[in-house]
Design a protein that fits this description.
heterodimer; A: alpha/beta; Pyruvate Kinase, Chain: A, domain 1; five-stranded mixed sheet; about 65% helix; B: ATP Synthase, domain 1; eight-stranded mixed sheet
Chain lengths: ~300, ~140
């Protein structure tokens, strides 16, 4: 049986763990608020871009001269998957969920006989996928969201992806990230970047209607030139948005994970304290019995 | 919104920078500056690095430098998606010159790295446009 000292040591150790987890929870909560604000602040830009892209894509498709970034290069043999994960752990099932999705996706693409390449953002994603798919990983980008996601970083990733596309290193590019639903829930969301597919949301449909109602736009210089400029830009914006969403989700996931860790530590402390007291009382009782029986023997 | 005002919005990837009703804005379009007054025909245009002029009461109220982007104009609205936007009077000449020099060095150092090269070239173009904007003030 454990001695009283063992109990005291264990209780002290669980208490210090609890202090750490509850501090991490507070930090994650503060970061989450900021991350959410940033994600909301970035919305007008991507909405504006989607609105323009929607009307441009329609007229470009009609005239049949859409650039490769929009229409694809006609092939579907090599897939690039950009995976958004975190640099640090202790955030619950966040990275595991992304890892599972990616694994299934890779296996189903392999089954169709396609080639797969992976570009991983975040140290944790590499750890998850290296063992099984190490030979597919092109590169891992680390510390992209420190202290917070920046547009320049997204633009660099986009530039890299675009260069690879233009030199024929892949045909289809998908990004997968945790979409922020609430502090408690994240949703693994894949989005196709190249060829770019406009997300089919209700908002987008509303905007389309508005555009049609507003009559056609004039384009300066012309659809094709604007699209050539707009599409690479849109790539950066989409990646930036994924980074923001992923960052907010990470903070949410960490907050939830640390909250339950703190609660578990509390429960463990209670249990240990009860057992500690019981043992202490048992020791006292034993001592008393010894004294009494000693006295009786005299 | 009044009938004789344009709802002008300036947006950067990070946030909405400016949203106000103005008399007229002049945007540096890819094929030349264009002014947006209420009732302008719907248009989408690319924006070259240059200065956006916001007019109030017949004269320039604010000058904002943008490093390129896109503009969407409707009859009542003018939305500019800018890559980088700074009020012109906040641009410091010496720091821009230093930036230009740095970017030029980056181009030399880039070697075969296409990604670095493209990024550095974009920086050179922006810095040049900034200098040009400071030197030649147009409109009063």
């Amino acid at each position: 049986m454990a001695s009283l000292k063992d109990f005291r040591v264990r209780i002290a150790s669980v208490k210090s763990t609890q202090r750490i987890t509850s501090a991490m929870k507070m930090v994650a909560a503060a970061k989450l608020r900021r991350a959410q604000e940033e994600a909301i602040a970035a919305r007008p830009y991507s909405e504006g871009m989607e609105r323009m892209l929607g009307s441009l894509a329609e007229s470009a498709a009609a005239s049949g001269n859409a650039p490769p970034l929009l229409a694809g290069n006609g092939k579907d043999d090599t897939h690039l998957i950009v995976i958004m994960t975190t640099d640090r752990g202790l955030c619950g099932g966040f990275n595991g969920a992304i890892g599972r999705w990616t694994r299934q996706r890779i296996l189903s693409l392999k089954a169709e006989g396609k080639e797969v390449k992976l570009l991983i953002v975040g140290r944790k994603g590499r750890g998850i996928l290296r063992a099984e798919f190490g030979d597919m990983i092109i590169d891992t980008l680390e510390d992209t969201a420190r202290p917070a996601p920046r547009f320049e970083t997204a633009a660099e990733i986009a530039q890299r992806v675009r260069t690879m596309f233009e030199t024929g290193k892949f045909d289809v590019c998908t990004i997968v990230y945790n979409k922020f639903i609430s502090a408690l829930t994240q949703d693994v969301t894949p989005q196709q970047l190249i060829p770019f597919a406009l997300p089919e949301t209700d908002e987008a449909k509303d905007d389309d209607n508005e555009v049609k109602g507003n009559a056609a736009y004039e384009y300066e210089p012309n659809e094709k030139d604007i699209l050539t400029d707009l599409l690479p830009r849109n790539l950066s914006v989409q990646i930036f948005r994924a980074m923001l969403e992923s960052f907010a989700s990470e903070q949410g996931a960490r907050m939830t994970a640390m909250d339950s860790a703190t609660r578990n530590a509390g429960e463990m402390i209670d249990r240990l304290t009860i057992e500690y007291n019981r043992t202490r009382q048992a020791a006292i009782t034993t001592e008393l019995i010894e004294i009494i029986s000693g006295a009786e023997a005299l | 919104m009044t009938d004789n005002a344009v709802q002008f919005e300036l947006v950067s990837p990070e946030k909405l920078l400016l949203s106000e009703d103005v008399e007229m804005v002049v945007v540096p379009g890819a094929e030349g500056d264009f002014g947006c007054l209420p009732g302008h025909a719907p248009m989408i245009s690319t924006v070259r690095p240059g200065v956006i002029h916001v007019f109030e009461g017949g004269s320039v109220k604010t000058r904002i430098f943008v490093a390129g982007g896109f503009a969407e104009v409707t009859t009542s609205r003018c939305t500019v998606l800018a890559e980088e936007a700074v009020p012109l009077d906040e641009i410091d000449r010496t720091s821009v010159e230093k930036d230009l020099q740095d970017a030029n060095e980056d181009i030399r150092d880039a070697g075969g790295n296409e990604v670095q090269l493209a990024l550095a070239e974009a920086r050179v173009a922006t810095a040049r446009a900034k200098l040009a904007a400071i030197d030649n003030l147009v409109y009063q």
